[in-house]
Amino acid sequence: MRILGINALFHDPAAALVIDGRTVAAAEEERFSRRKHGKRPLPFSAWELPEQAAAWCLKRAGLRPQDLDAVAYSFDPALARPADAMGLDDPWDHLRLTYAREAPNFLRTALPGLDPETVRFVPHHMAHAASGAYAAPDADSCSVLVLDGRGERASHLAARRVGGRLEPLRAQDLPHSLGLVYEELTEHLGFLRSSDEFKVMALASHGTPRMLPELRRHVYPTGDGGFHAAGVPWAELCAPRGPDEPWTQDHADVAASAQAVLEETLLDLVRWLHGRTHDTVLTLAGGVALNCVANSRIAREGPFSRVWVQPAAGDAGTALGGALLVSAGAGDAPEPMTGADLGRDWSDAELGAWLKTAAVPCEKPEDIAVTVARTLADNGIVAWFQGRSEYGPRALGHRSLLAHPGHAGNLERLNDVKGREQFRPVAPMVLADRAAEIFDGPLPSPYMLFVHDVAPAWRDRVPAVVHVDGTARIQTVDPERQPLLARMLREFERLTGLPVVVNTSLNTAGRPMVDDPRDALECFGSSPVDLLAIGPYAVRRGALFRTGDGGEEVAR
Q1: Of the listed 11, 37, 188, 452, which one is catalytic?
Q2: 235, 188 in Cβ contact below 8 A?
Q3: Is the pTM of this model over 0.85?
């Protein structure tokens, strides 16, 4: 079966292609349109489809729209209720539902040749659940927990996978929503709602949860697999912050309190689910599953032996989950994800042609990994553009900014390069077989979805990647999956004695992660980055901006 998955209704529009149970391609529309998150999550934008991502997925597999057996759309308008009946203040939600009902015809227009009868409406949280339970490795029998802002009429789903079957166990009806509560706080703290929730998580590390008793009056588990989460009087807890105003200790404390009550509630939900299933593996999906601090507490204190989080856990992942669910329903055995590198890539020859067209002076060293390691050892910043781009919000060694972790000033330096707030941390990448001696937490951790305590003996050695609370959100690198990245890490350790490199996303604040070569050249040209490693080519900042013939060559 050839199944195209589509996420479009709320935010992070994306497309994914599953053929005979195997994920062939997946990409977010933002990487093509260059609009962060693809669009704002407003009813007026609900008609917008991931047209470019869908067309690319089909092109990757050599398919036409008429070749598809089904299209999975990750929202079922038949399950929805009017917003006011669910206690939500969203007077234009009916427009969103109208657009959802018309999705088959919109898709026929976006993908000429597509039969609208092939479109299947997939319940939103079932798509989330399938993206975790079916994509996880070694998880033929597992529990799955989904939490986000909202779906058709709920904000949560507890379910269980047994073989090819996915069984719902419990859902929490709106307006109670842990995701919406966190979104409200994001907006109260002056950040962009449905976009900047990760900033609240980062800010929480700078505060103390002194407001937790008050928050527990509004956010708490109900003991039956559900929860209460609504009506938090944020303005009574602290004054709102304007987008351009400095944060105060009160802002950090309310963030810490919200983070703590979220973790408490999640742990109760996890324990309830385990009591029903007695599984050893828990998979997580939904936007709340991108909260790596909460994930780590679930792994540390929860009853499951292993916790796996889908790397595109937000709404983008429902494109994949919807396709996997329809595929499994048709009898195809779902294959687990082998990595998040499911997006676009270019051959060495194609990259060389891009550089030649742009008249960019470059080198083609014997081993780009060695060249990068030497630049990093000399405290240079490297833009790393290699292989297929990542699906999901994390840079995982394909579209990354790299730096030396041994210089504490590189945290401020990278945040300046990216134009980010200084309270935000950067992350380390480390070879999988070296991680345990430096970082204490769930291992392996290939998708940067957990935080780890940094061993005291290493905190002064890699200060740039140690957050204010002594943790780091790590990526472990498997040499079999990412041999070029592993070779760079080994060479960097040989030069510096440090098996860790700083890794943050290759973008600047408010812009999507770099995806194609043009994006890479624009980002490199506009940011104080020392080296662009694009495929086998090295572009040096000094050579790019030097006048006259500096002895460099244009790729050919």
Answers
A1: 11
A2: yes
A3: yes
